[in-house]
């Protein structure tokens, strides 16, 4: 690619030529599309470099060139016939180099060369070859003004620069005032937020202290309730058992024969005592579970044998032909757990299902689900509304309007089953639809930690 043809050339011989090169530099910068401030910078740089070069020798050649390709820019080369002083010249022109984008000083060729480059703004017109010819023709017709004319132009530029500096100073003062006002507002808001946060923290600390106190009171009340239930239940078991035994003796064939009315009353006493003993046993078991007195005895449980035992012991409760009682063959042959506690949970679930199922079936099954084993007790009983799915696990709570088909409910079986499930490291959940039945799922880890 050939070098572009220069826009203009001139030679510096006398001091007056410094004013000429300043004017010419401003005109060239205006012609290629530089902004007003860039025109002033380029003109000032040229006059200062020209002054320094004329102080070192008789003349210097100045060449103006526009770069059409790559990054559009204006390049000015000032060649001085004297050589060998590039380092000292570069030091003298160090401040001037800030007025342009790039400045180079070297001793290449017969003398010293100073090359300056200033990029054109993005909005400058495109420098096509035709436009370059127009710029050359216009510059050829340019008539330099006198030093007084150039001095007047410099004064105007200085006044404009001072006005711009004053405007910037006023803007800066206004911005500082706004910033100071903003800072005062921020500090006031910070202090307000700090006070509110401190007040909130005091409230939170007081609330935590109150919660800790209530937790201690609740824990003490829970322990007192558990001790009360355990003591009362334990004390009631003996007299209730005695009542049942005495009732059995009264109706024994070896005792004196009772009248029909007496026999009916004694049977009523025995039935009530049996129900009371069931309630007392439930309370005692629940109190033990709440007090954490159950320590699981981890063994390998044969689920096939356990299911067979449940099938045999609960078969007498499934006396209605309308209800099919099914204990499936376990899909999981064995599980590491506490055999007694696991059997108790399943027995409670099955007993509860048989009590509230009038038609259909009650079914027990087990399956593997990832790292857990799920025992499922499904029935086709009355069902439980969704909003009561958690309440049925509260002590003594019974679904309003529900009546067991057989036996009597105490409201302790499901809460006791859930606590035992937690002791075994698992959980108990229910899915139920009123009128369709319920599905209780006992989840236990396949390998308890």
UniProtKB/TrEMBL annotation:
SUPFAM superfamilies: ATPase domain of HSP90 chaperone/DNA topoisomerase II/histidine kinase (SSF55874), Homodimeric domain of signal transducing histidine kinase (SSF47384). Its EC number is 2.7.13.3. It catalyses: ATP + protein L-histidine = ADP + protein N-phospho-L-histidine. One of its GO terms (molecular function) is kinase activity. Gene3D superfamilies: 1.10.287.130, Histidine kinase-like ATPase, C-terminal domain (3.30.565.10). It is found in: Cell membrane. This is histidine kinase. It comes from Actinoplanes ianthinogenes. Keywords: Coiled coil, Kinase, Phosphoprotein, Transferase, Two-component regulatory system. It is an enzyme of class 2 (transferase). It comes from the Bacteria. Residues 231-448 form the Histidine kinase domain. Residues 148-185 form a coiled coil. PROSITE patterns: HIS_KIN.
